[in-house]
Amino acid sequence: MAIGRLRLKPLSYDFPPWRPPNEANSLLLRVTRGCTWNRCTFCAMYKHFTFQRRPLEEIKADILTAASLYCDEVRTVFIGDSNSPSIKTADFVDILRQLYASFPAIERVTSYARAKTLLGKPLDELKQLRQAGLTRLHVGLETGNAALLKKIKKGPTPEEMVAGCLKAKDAGFELSLYVLLGLGGEDLSEAHARDTAAVLNLIDPHFIRVRTLLPQPGSELYAAMESGSFIKCSHKTILREQRVLVENLNVNSEYLSDHITNYIPLNGKLPGDKEAMLRTIEEYDADFAHNSLLQSKFARKDTLQSL
Ligand code: SF4
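Above: inputs. Below: predicted complex with iron/sulfur cluster.
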């Protein structure tokens, strides 16, 4: 049930163009358009949007439209676009109150958030958002390697990532962090994996969500790959990188490979499932050199676009 996409008229309702895969059944509500940052070299998602905060009355009109159609059906809500906590806290609280008043069965409200935005918000304001019913934040860590964070123009340092995320946890949010396998290319693969594990260990998020880098047309990294200045990781390197990452994790997190870009279905609850997860990686690694079906399955992933 993709609430909205199938039944709401596009002209009467403004949808976030992107959402996490696990929000496929959620009501999608757009409070901003685009990304407040929009500079990450690997990202082409919002390149064609100028960042805008939607007027409060437009957002509230969308809530009323959705409520008139799906009032009792909505259990989860995803709020877009890329960094909703960047709007005024009082406005966000107002939106959350109207959401909960309009959909009595809501169980979860989720948003993307930048670590720097979380770091810049007073703890008291983050708590206000949590108390008003924003429950889960998805933050793009991508890597814990300081040089790589700088190179991809992510914005925060590893220390700022840790501080922003710990503050969100302190405010009571469920925290979901994205990691981008292959982001450092062949050269930085090992350092990327080790340093990412180190930062994740400090944050100990509720969820670690892994994606695999497939440079997308329109991104700086795609242009760098085309010009030969960025060497994309081989399939074997990605497997090795994931092994180093998992080996070095010391967290109590749900580890999820819930994205079409990932080569192998590696999922588990850490620390309990760590050995089984490492065995899974070893099995794929051992099989890969001799299994042409597996090789072509991995290769097909490399052609995916519009991610
Ligand atoms: S990765 Fe996130 S923060 Fe970076 S440009 Fe894309 S949407 Fe913005």
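Residues 35, 37-40, 43, 45-46, 82, 114, 140 surround iron/sulfur cluster (CB under 6 Å).
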